[in-house]
Structure formats: C-alpha cells, structure tokens
Design a protein that fits this description.
Elements lengths: L3 E10 L9 E9 L3 E5 L6 H8 L7 E6 L2 E2 L4 H10 E4 L12 H11 L4 H14 L15 H13 L5 E5 L7 H16 L3 E5 L3 H7 L2 E6 L2 E6 L1 H5 L2 H6 L6 H6 L9 H15 L2
Parallel strand pairs: 3-8, 3-9, 6-7, 7-8
Antiparallel strand pairs: 1-2, 1-4, 4-5, 9-10
Helix pairs in contact: 3-4, 3-5, 5-6
Length: about 280
Amino acid sequence: MQQYLLEFEQIHYTYPGAQQSALNNLTLQIPANKRCALIGQNGCGKTTLFLLANGLYKPHKGSVKWQGEALKYDRKYLLQLRQKVGLIFQDPEQQLVASTVEEDISYGLCNLGLPDTEIKERVEQALEEFGLTTLAERPVHHLSLGQKKRVSIADVMVLRPQLLLLDEPTAYLDRLHTRNLMATLKKIHASGTTILMATHDLDLVYRWADWIFVMDRGRLVLQGKPEDVFNQREILEDLQLGVPLIYEMLFSEETAEEGPVLERVRQRILNLFRYF
C-alpha cells in the first residue's frame, strides 16, 4: 500500500487583495520515496503549495497533513516540521542568511540548540557531501549562482529532512551546473529523501521523475507516471505546456502512421531517453 508523506485535502488559499484563489479546492498527495515533479504554467499555484507544505502559509479552507496528521501552527510544531520538510527557493539569495558558507550551513542547527560538537560534525559532513569544503570560509556574496544553490541545498539537507521541496532548482543554471545539481539530487534521493521539484523543464521531468503532478489555476488536473502523463498530449497542449522534445519528435504529425514494429521502436527510444 502506497504511503504518503504530505497530503493536501480540499485546499483553498487566496492572497490578500487577489480576485482569484491561488489554490482552489486542491487535493494532492506526495508519495513517500519518490522523485516527484510538479509542472504547470506560472501562476498555477506551485509556489503557494510549497509555502503551505512546511507551514509558512496556512490554508483558508481544507487541511494539510504530515504522515496522516493535520499540521498545527504553533511555533514548536512548525520548528519540528521544517526539519522534516525542507524547502529550497528558486532564488538562493532568499535563503542565505550568514556571512560565510560554513556559518550559513550551521545556522539552522544552531537554532535547534544542538551541542557544538554535533553542529561541527554535521556541518563538516555537509561541506564534504556537497563539495563545499574549499569554500567553507568564503563569503556567501562572493559565490557564483551555482555555488549559492549548492549552499542552499546543504543548508536544508544538514537538517536531514524526509521531504525536500525545490522550486525551479535549475533556473538560470548552465548545462554543467544543472548536471551537477541533478547528480546531487540523485545522491539525496538514494539516501532516502523524497523529492518534489517544481520545474518548467519537461525534458528533465521525463528523464528524472517517478511521478508527475500537473496543476492549472490552483487545481490538480493530471497525475501519474511520466509515460502516462505525457500520453495525455491533448490535455497538456490545451494547458499550453506541451510535451518533452522526445515525444514531439516521435509523435509529430509527420510520424503519425503507426505499425507494430514502429511502435516497439518508439517505446525502446522513449525508455532509453527516460533512464539516460
């Protein structure tokens, strides 16, 4: 039986002064141990969902549940929740708070009141795991964007969350830094952390995700395995999302004539691309 870490049940949320709800009767469940992707047009509610996920926002209607229990909104509970549900913003500048890399990674641990020896040990481990050891004493404002994103991930992962939320993690990164980031996420998932990533990169989604959520105007309109979601081409095109390039190449009008052999070839190509 599938276990869910985080569940959103009939969620409504409207920003002050807004005429439309950011989330409109949203019901969505994040399965444990999966690599999940969240896709949709700008303004569909992805970021709002993330802010509700670790208690930064509180729904106006509906409930958010962590491992089957409704979230509480007192300070003590939320402090514990944010150790379990780590959120990484699109812009790392929103997350970096200290002067140096080492100080920034230790910030959350210090807030937990952990012993100095444990803080030192966990910070050193995080510096090594995320390739930041040589940058430990570097001022954060001297870092490149790719380095800042690595630090922001280390800031969260040093708390050892069960669920990691990433809002457009590859935005503004070149191919090298994107490849390095995805290698980091592979290690994080292998260590037992469930991941939910919001992104517009459909090719990345197809290669990486085990499960996909598609949102539109504050609602969940599709979910499933990548091959099942992207087979719903008409729906995705109506939402102006489209499909990954590999689907565009294999299922365009020019290649519409199908036979059993061609279909088998297509499926083999799709599978190779999926796990490349």
